[in-house]
Write a structure and sequence with these properties.
37 helices, elongated, about 625 residues, Leucine-rich Repeat Variant, mainly alpha, about 65% helix, about 0% strand, single chain
């Protein structure tokens, strides 16, 4: 955290007792001389430090005041790494019963605690104990400086655990409610600094910090709002804390939504980030929409300030996870700004949040899928996807895969030429991008349209075309990739497009690979298989994880490969080894069994692809 509020007043003139020890008289004279030449004097070593040390350890409270005030004034102007010989006299002054000495000594220590090395040394020398005593002081000025020093000490990770164990959290929480705004700022700043590790967050919650931080969201002071909002954002990272917040703080979301309209940009930003973390849970995803959080989030997306854009985009992404929020987000006007952010090449995270949100919005509704396509999302994806970073490519191809599940949109997507960019990406250096691109092509191939000309157009181009992609995936060591390829070929063949069937049949390398896969033993029909006639298990067009093992997956691949050989009228090899799919013959019931089994195989592939997609 940045600087803290100092409550150290100006030096006062002291009238010393007439009887001083000789060394004290010399120290006073030396210090006065050094202060006259303070611009050229190093007070942290040699004779100047010796003079200050003598006065600090004096039994004369006036001399202690002079030393404490001198330390405060010196460290206000210059902070450097110091040793124990400097800290010992300052720490001794903290034990004084005089408020002026305490106030000035804690101010000096807080100044020195700006230096990273000093932070560690102060704690190791036992500085926390006297600081905690001063936090409990009845004097507001002493409280202010003591809390400010702890705030600075708490910025070092190695100090946080010791601060938490020292008993400092309860007085810090109490002082966060101080009527003095300087004390309140320093206390809330210290609490914020203690929220950066799971262990410390739990200790803060146990100390009763949550209701204090939530109540101070309505503070008139911008700094206090910022510290409390950021602290609550960090606390909300943990699921157990979100549960506690949900149980005890019913007005939290309303307060944070209001703070997104704060005059302070940093408060707006942290409010959106706090809501983002809360929106990891379903309850908060719904509440953010319920309490009109979409309007300020949309405004923040239009900001020119990157942190605001990023925080708002991250929040909307989480809110969009809940199916009930998809239509409200679309109806609130988010599609165009989200699509525009796909081109926000100065920040990859913003692009990822935007495209992931669009994918979430498309997940549950045909209406929403159509709205996203109509708004121009696919054209923008096609324009950008080959040049954006891999993480963005992964999200974009996953989004296309979801949109391609819509039978009504498939002809439109094919007409846009989306295959021309998906095919090169099946050879990406990223396994995720490969899998998502292939899944999108597979979804497009299923019930695509009466006209399969777009697939014929890309059979050999670009980058070797659909043909090269299928060959590559059929020979992959990854059974998920094999599964996608054989399932896609089945879809293309079942379209009964003459040119497409000829393309597949006339490729020796494709047929050879299919024969190899078909030679695997048939899968066992026992076990926890999906019943194609059970509508409660979802349609065959849904990606559902049915828990297939690798062995079961290989069996599904072999079954689909045999189906391909049947469809290409080249199944003689499969019949000879007894591993062909059930012969159709004239048995009507056999035909039904076959059709049902193929449907089950399709569902199994969907499950396999779902596992690949949900892994990122």
């Amino acid at each position: 955290m940045g600087g803290v509020s100092s409550c150290c007043g100006p030096r006062r003139k002291n009238s010393y007792e007439p009887l001083l020890l000789e060394n004290e008289r010399e120290a006073v004279a030396d210090l006065l001389q050094y202060l006259e030449n303070r611009s050229t004097t190093n007070f942290f070593t040699g004779s100047p430090l010796a003079a200050l040390t003598t006065l600090s350890f004096s039994d004369n409270v006036d001399l202690q005041r002079s030393a404490a005030l001198a330390f405060a004034e010196i460290t206000e102007k210059e902070v450097r790494e110091v040793g124990r010989d400097t800290l010992d006299p300052v720490l001794y002054l903290l034990t004084s019963h005089d408020h002026e000495v305490q106030r000035a000594a804690s101010a000096a220590l807080g100044n020195l605690a700006v230096n990273a090395e000093n932070k560690l040394l102060i704690v190791s020398l036992g500085g926390l104990e006297p600081l905690i005593r001063q936090m409990l002081s009845s004097n507001v000025e002493v409280q202010c400086n003591a809390v400010g020093c702890v705030t600075n000490l708490a910025t070092h990770d190695e100090n946080k655990t010791q601060i938490a164990k020292s008993g400092a959290l309860i007085p810090l929480t109490r002082l966060a409610r101080s009527k003095d705004m300087r004390v309140q700022r320093n206390a809330t700043g210290a609490l914020l600094n203690m929220t950066h590790s799971d262990e410390n967050r739990q200790q803060l919650v146990a100390a009763g910090a949550i209701p204090v931080l939530v109540s101070l969201l309505n503070s008139p002071d911008t700094d206090v709002q910022y510290y409390c909002t950021t602290a609550l954002s960090n606390i909300a990272v943990d699921a157990s804390n979100r549960k506690k917040l949900a149980q005890t703080e019913p007005k939290l979301v309303q307060s944070l939504v209001q703070l997104m309209d704060s005059q302070s940009l940093k408060v707006q930003c942290q409010a959106a980030l706090a809501l983002r973390n809360l929106a990891s849970d379903e309850k908060y995803q719904l509440e953010i929409v319920k309490f009109d959080g979409l309007k300020p989030l949309l405004r923040l997306l239009h900001s020119s300030y990157l942190p605001l854009i990023l925080s708002a985009a991250a929040c909307v992404r989480n809110v969009s996870i809940h199916p009930a929020n998809e239509s409200p987000i679309i109806d609130s006007g988010f599609l165009q700004p989200l699509i525009e952010l796909l081109s926000f090449d100065e920040n990859e995270e913003v692009q990822c949040h935007a495209i992931s949100t669009l994918r979430n919005l498309a997940a549950s509704s045909e209406r929403n899928k159509g709205a996203i396509v109509e708004a121009g999302a696919v054209e923008r994806i096609k324009e950008l996807v080959l040049t954006v970073p891999l993480a963005v490519q992964s999200e974009m191809t996953a989004c296309v895969a979801v949109l391609a599940l819509s039978d009504d949109l498939k002809p439109q997507l094919l007409e846009m030429g989306i295959c021309e960019v998906l095919i090169p990406l099946t050879n990406s250096s990223s396994v995720e991008v490969q899998g998502n691109s292939a899944a999108a092509l597979g979804n497009l191939s299923s019930k695509a349209a009466e006209d399969y000309a777009p697939f014929n157009a890309v059979w050999n181009k670009p980058d070797g075309g659909l043909h090269a992609y299928l060959v590559r995936f059929l020979s992959s060591a990854d059974i998920t990739f094999q599964h996608i390829a054989v399932w896609t070929i089945v879809q293309l063949l079942e379209a009964e497009d003459e040119q497409l069937t000829n393309n597949i049949r006339s490729s020796p390398i494709l047929i050879s690979s299919i024969r190899q896969l078909a030679a695997s033993p048939p899968p066992s029909r026992a076990g926890n298989r999906r019943d194609p006639n059970d509508a409660s298990q979802g349609s065959d067009d849904d990606f559902e994880d049915d828990g297939l093992t690798d062995q079961e997956g290989e069996g599904e691949i072999a079954t689909l490969a045999r189906r391909i050989l049947d469809l290409t009228e080249d199944a003689g090899h499969g019949q000879e080894d007894g591993s062909r799919f059930t012969d159709r013959g004239d048995d009507e019931r056999g035909q039904q069994t076959q059709a049902g089994s193929v449907g089950s195989e399709h569902a199994a592939l969907r499950a396999s692809v779902h596992r690949a997609l949900s892994g990122h």
